[in-house]
Amino acid sequence: MTNNAQIILDHISFSYSEATEKSHFLLNEFYLNVKKGEYITIAGANGSGKTTLASMIKGLITPTSGEIYYNGKKVTDCGMNSEIGYIFSNAENQIVSPVVEDDVAFGLENSGFNRQDMKGVVLSSLDKVDALNLQKELTHLLSGGEQQKVNIAGILALECKCIIFDEASSMLDPLSRRALLRLLKELNKQYKITIIQITHNLFELLNSDRVIYLYSGQILFDGKSEVFINNKSSCYSFGEKQRLLIEFIQKLEKITKDCSFYGWDLEDLVSHLSGLAEKK
Ligand code: ADP
After folding, report:
1. H or E stretch including 116?
2. What is the CA(49)–ligand 1 centre distance, in A?
3. Considering the entire predicted model, what is its pTM?
């Protein structure tokens, strides 16, 4: 086993049904090794298994066979991993308290954390996501981007060592989305938190160091983001086409001053351009 591995999925197989035939498994003899402090993108078409994989890493679902290791310890049947945070796309759904500071403290209270130290932890967690100013605010009045910050602060308060972002920016406006990306980079670089982001957005992919591209529950690509973008292969829906798209969108943004593109391929670009044309 690799020494600095934080998470290992060791030849896991998984099916949502009672299927016993391997051909019906969503994940089949799947192997993945995540090192401490990595910033990874999990990409792939809808239904390719991204959320299933992330749920398994968090311990929300158990593999049909194979083992999961966390920091070298077998955790396959241990349920939810408290060192791994999970942020979903709908920020509002993850909010549990009417006031920000209570929401950030919620997990601490549930884990029986010392009340005297709680305030300090809540404040330092809000500070880490640059949201100290929100401490006394009502959560339902916050923007989606601010709610995501509060959700992340709640996870940081629990000292999670890895955070999974499952299309966490997909419901945010362009500016909040970019702010969230900057925050992810900072959490990774400054606090050495392992980031696993599931995304369908090319620009988010560029924010990460490693890309895992799934197709029907299998890894088609696992390597550096820049290698992924410069992939000359034309038989998959990634590679050079994505690089050209990124170049095109960057030029478009300069001309239109509009940075609202959120997407992955030519189809997304066409619908983005139609939207821009309708606005004119
Ligand atoms: P992705 O995140 O890449 O869109 P998912 O992991 O959500 O893919 O889903 C992979 C496949 O598993 C899809 O065919 C989906 O319909 C199926 N699936 C996902 N969740 C469930 C579930 N709870 N029960 C049964 N099938 C599911």
Report:
1. helix 115-128
2. 6
3. 0.91
